[in-house]
Amino acid sequence: HWTLLSLSLLNCLLSTACSVGLALAIALTVHSRGMRLVTGCNSSALPADARAAIATNDCPFNTTRIYDTALALWVPSMVLAAAEAVLSGRCGLVALILQGIGPCAQTYVKDQVARPGTVKEGQLLMGLAESCA
Fold this sequence. Notes:
It contains 4 helices and no strands. It is an all-alpha fold and 133 residues long. The chain has a domain at 1-37 and 62-116. Helix 1 (2-31) runs antiparallel to helix 2. The longest helix has 34 residues, at 66-99.
């Protein structure tokens, strides 16, 4: 249970940091209209808006769709990282409850353990998540 708790809290922190970092990257990209994405290109042929950029030989990559592609990849990644953080937090809460530390640990787990054979293991974990959420 302690391993579950420590790994879920670590994953919750890392997922939260990832979603915050992606939100910051999206905000900076939208604010600069994509010009931060093409800063490696030292071409004067590039327009002021990265969405209208053309492919030149001075750029190590094709700049025509980098703005739309970056946002199309970053937004779902940020949503999934935030969902992962929430689920990891709930997993940590269940680990705390199973240790007898969490908010519902004193009542729910003792009631279910006192009656052996009445509840299956899967039902116990689902009940923990629902009763304390």
